[in-house]
Amino acid sequence: MAGExxxxxxxxxxxxxxxxxxxxxxxxxxxxxxxKAASVVVPPHAAVEExxxxxxxxxxxxxxxxxxxxxxLFTCLGRNDEFCSSDLEVCLLGSVAPCVLYGTNAERLGSxxxxxxxxxxxxxxxYFVGNSLFGWNCLAPWFSYSSRSAxxxxxxxxxxxxxxxxxxxxxxxxxxxxxxxxxxxxxCDFVTHVLCHTCALCQEGRELRRKVLHxxxxxxSTVVVMPPxxxxxxRK
Length: 236
Prior knowledge:
Blueprint: H1 2-14, H2 16-39, H3 84-96, H4 98-109, H5 115-133, H6 140-154, H7 160-168, H8 178-195, H9 197-211
Helix pairs in contact: 3-4, 3-9, 4-5, 4-6, 4-9, 6-8, 6-9, 8-9
């Protein structure tokens, strides 16, 4: 009797109908698990926050914090440090010859041959045309404001829009991505050059003189090779 019961149990286990029922139950259980997983809604605060712009233009996590300008926009005479004489020179050039100051700023940003003359002469022409037709220097800022944007990007400096948003916090809601933020910063750079043109040029000049050497300065180290000493053979 025991042998017959074991044979019947083996037949039931090997029956294809029973195996099909077991497979259906497994499939149903897997489907229930998937349906439950799909029904789980991820809350908005648990989503991964995306960051787009960093100092070097790459996307790696949280953006690098912006640096501050070495001097303020209205710090006309500069700071009382080792660059005080250079700050006075910048103030004098900005007041008397802004075309020369803008040319030297462009020369420090891009040390290609002819950078100073190309920017200085172009600025000078726009300066005379603006003063002749409109009575004030209104055309040169359209040409020179891009240098402020280039300095801000090169040294990862805080822009006017970001500074205003940090102080009052009323402008951050209108920013969708970092590209839109950069457009707003460029607009603020243009407005700064139009309304406070001389002060903007002087601030950029002070910043560049503290961080970039003049292209004409030979900063390469000189290697001095000393001749070998006179050698004598010792006699035994």
